[in-house]
Specification:
The chain is α+β, with helices and mostly antiparallel strands. It has helices at residues 12-18, 42-68, 71-76, 84-92, 125-141, 155-166, 182-197, 235-238, 268-275, 291-295, and strands at 2-5, 25-26, 29-30, 36-40, 99-105, 113-118, 172-177, 201-206, 211-212, 218-219, 228-232, 253-255, 285-287, 301-305, 315-318, 321-325, 336-340, 351-359, 362-371, 381-383, 385-387. The N and C termini lie close together (11 Å).
Length: 389
């Protein structure tokens, strides 16, 4: 694994704008950054990232029956009691999953380590599945990369195949996100694009415009009944929303399914370690009130709330000394877990995290974000990658 300086494509910003990639620059900083790229060998991708991410997803699925059978674990994950039966039914009935993203720490040597699993509403899908693939093709055509260079990126094709496998052609799907969020819309539109390519109907409506019919079914902004809904709105919020009372009776298949509420929760990190202690792709982790377990971390750990976004309310401690604290403390009120501190590698002053995309139950590609800070936050950069042997 190397970070290689490369020339940028002429007028790539114009291309991005024309494609609707309006957040390629954010907050006065580049978000998409192709002044360099990460280079991997095929062995590194297959052995250290692809296969482990697929296995990690399998471990997470193995954990679900344990959680559903334990009120203590459900309490640990702060799952609202009123909706536990609804979540259990979604697993029992085989409600299908579409995608998720593991965040991994990896420096090119040894097994990648799981930092967390974005199992419900991961973003950066468009950049990972589409824009970085265009970058590869155009850089090969320009002679910047060689015709033998490749990229671990079958994300879009896997999404198309997943939708085609789950729904008969002509099935209407609905997609929703909070209005006015370009990053969220790009993710939802990437999903809709894949669904349309699979021969399905794809209708978008802003989350705020979804209504409830007299029959207690969900309606879109044209008063059409929503039978299947992909919602870029996290379960930890939805289960506490006024609409949660109507979920069980609305007859609407939710994507991601309700059982993903169990996995999109950093409380699974200590539960995974408890069940699969010593697994090469897991870091030791404990709930913050587990005195003995936390003591075993030796004073070097990352403290995280079970719910958090973009590094908010995270604290890094090494040898008993606080190294970094997120300035955004929006999630301080949530229960905390502590995970063994695994420093991110440093390449040219930036610390990368590998995002491994799981489509269905199989890893299908990666995207890389890097940050100058130890805590990857909202000013991180997305970096393309390529494979060269």
């Amino acid at each position: 694994m190397q970070k290689i300086s490369l020339p940028e494509r002429p007028d790539w910003r114009g291309t991005a704008k024309g494609l609707g990639f309006t957040f390629a620059d954010m907050h006065g900083e580049p978000y998409w950054d192709e002044t360099s790229a990460y280079q991997f060998s095929l062995r590194q991708i297959e052995d250290d990232i692809e296969d482990p991410a697929t296995e990690l997803h399998s471990l997470c699925r193995e954990l679900i029956p344990d959680i559903l059978a334990s009120e203590e674990m459900m309490d640990r994950l702060v799952i609202p009691a009123a909706h536990r039966d609804y979540i259990a039914a979604s697993w029992r009935d085989g409600a299908p999953e579409i995608y998720g993203r593991f965040d991994l720490v990896y420096d090119g040597n040894g097994p990648a380590k799981m930092l967390e699993y974005n199992a419900d509403t991961p973003t950066s899908l468009y950049e990972s599945a589409s824009f970085q693939w265009s970058w590869l093709e155009e850089q090969i055509a320009a002679g910047v990369l060689t015709p033998k260079d490749d990229q671990f990126n079958g994300i879009h094709e896997a999404l198309v195949a997943r939708f085609a496998a789950l729904f008969p052609k002509g099935t209407d799907l609905h997609f929703t996100a909070i209005a006015g969020q370009p990053e969220d819309y790009a993710t939802v539109e990437s999903m809709g694009w894949a669904a349309r390519e699979a021969g399905l109907g794809a209708h978008y409506t802003d989350l705020e415009k979804i209504a409830l019919s007299e029959e207690r079914q969900f309606l879109d902004d044209e008063d059409r009944v929503i039978a299947t809904l992909f919602k870029l709105y996290p379960w930890e919020d939805l289960l506490r929303d006024d609409y949660a009372a109507h979920l069980a009776a609305a007859g609407c298949l939710m994507l991601e399914p309700a059982w993903k509420a169990l996995l999109s929760n950093k409380g699974i990190l200590p539960l995974l370690w408890q069940k699969f202690e010593g697994h090469p792709n897991l870091l030791p982790a404990y709930f913050a009130d587990d005195t003995d377990g936390c003591a075993s971390l030796g004073g070097s750990y990352v403290e995280k709330p079970i719910f958090s976004r973009e590094g908010a309310s995270v604290r890094i401690v090494e040898d008993g000394q606080t190294l970094d604290v997120a300035s955004d403390r929006a999630y301080d009120a949530h229960p905390m877990i502590r995970q063994a501190y695994q420093p991110l590698p440093i390449f040219d002053g930036f610390r990368p995290i590998v995002g491994a995309w799981v489509i269905g139950e199989t890893c299908a590609g990666i995207g890389i974000r890097e940050d100058r800070a130890r805590i990857t936050q909202d000013l991180s950069r997305f970096k393309p990658h390529f494979i060269r042997d």
